[in-house]
Specification:
This protein has four helices and three strands; from the N terminus they run H-E-E-E-H-H-H. Bound molecules: zinc ion.
Length: 119
């Protein structure tokens, strides 16, 4: 076990990096969708990679900064598409594919390897 102070410093470091990355990705893809970049929070979550609330606040698991960048990108794109489609309908997946044509590769690899990045 890491001493609490060090653990905190490590977490702060990673969440800052995650925030910067997520902001960059949201900027690019919001522009493609023609919407303003939504508010987001980078959080430590044990079981999920991301979520989008009813009032369009995105929550992204900061542990994704330890994953390959495309996997973080996929999660951000996925949650961003929920701003427009609040479900996993065919229309939703079409939108994801439009933004990230090879998303299925990253969706699968995240499912397979994602547990490795969970603290
Ligand atoms: Zn979803």
């Amino acid at each position: 076990m890491l001493p609490l102070l060090i653990k905190k410093a490590v977490w702060n470091f990673y969440s800052k990096r995650a925030e910067e990355e997520v902001e960059k990705i949201l900027k690019v893809y919001s522009k493609k969708l023609g919407i303003a970049p939504p508010t987001f929070k980078v959080k430590h979550q044990r079981r999920r990679w991301g979520s989008c609330s009813a009032d369009n606040v995105l929550r992204i698991n900061f542990q994704l900064v330890m994953a390959p960048p495309e996997q973080l990108e996929y999660v951000v794109v996925h949650e961003l598409c929920h701003v427009i489609e609040k479900n996993h309908s065919a229309r939703f997946w079409k939108l994801v594919k439009q933004l990230m044509p090879d998303y299925e590769v990253y969706r699968k690899s995240l499912k397979k390897e994602g547990w490795k990045y969970m603290l």
